[in-house]
Amino acid sequence: MPEQYRILMIGPKGIGVHTQAARLSAKYGWRVIDYPALVREKLSNILKEDVHLPNNIDQEESVIGLQQQEIDEIKAGKPFASWKFLPWVLDTLGHQLSVIPEPEEVLLEPLTEE
């Protein structure tokens, strides 16, 4: 199998998804991400915070967060679209989500009077 090969395994509890993923990981060296556990961990960390800051306010550290309305809906037990968690998976895999370019140094030539 190619080193960069990716596979998504889904299924109901008890069907053996984790077992098969562990076998494939052992055979091919693939990294396994337990998606439900990842989401629980990230949500737990977000819900512990008193203040929920908007995403990427600090250029030194990229923060993946949720809007306050989304947090309130999760706390109320409302369903939440799984595609919104994709940045967490990519971040866990080590894929940088955005690159902030370094500011270019602008060299100005001195003004000369003619």
Description:
The chain contains 4 helices and no strands. The chain has helices spanning 17-28, 35-48, 68-75, 86-92. The radius of gyration is 21 Å and the shape is flat. The model has no long low-confidence stretch (mean pLDDT 76). It folds into 2 domains: 1-32, no CATH class; 34-92, no CATH class. With 114 residues, it is an all-alpha fold. It is 36% helix and 0% strand.
Record keyword descriptors for this entry:
mainly alpha, 114 residues, 2 domains
What is shown here, in short?
The protein is mainly α. The chain has helices at residues 17-28, 35-48, 68-75, 86-92. The longest helix has 14 residues, at 35-48.
User: What spatial form do the alpha-carbon principal axes imply?
Assistant: flat
Q: Give start-end ranges of low-pLDDT stretches.
A: none
Series of secondary-structure elements, N-terminal to C-terminal = HHHH
Rg over CA atoms: 21 Å
The profile of the biggest β sheet is:
none
**Count the helices. How many?**
4
> How many E strands?
0
Structural class: mainly alpha
As a percent range, the share of helical residues equals 25-40%
Domain count? 2
% residues in beta strands: under 5%
End-to-end CA span = 70 Å
Average pLDDT across residues?
Answer: 76
List the helices and strands and how they pair.
Elements: H1 17-28, H2 35-48, H3 68-75, H4 86-92
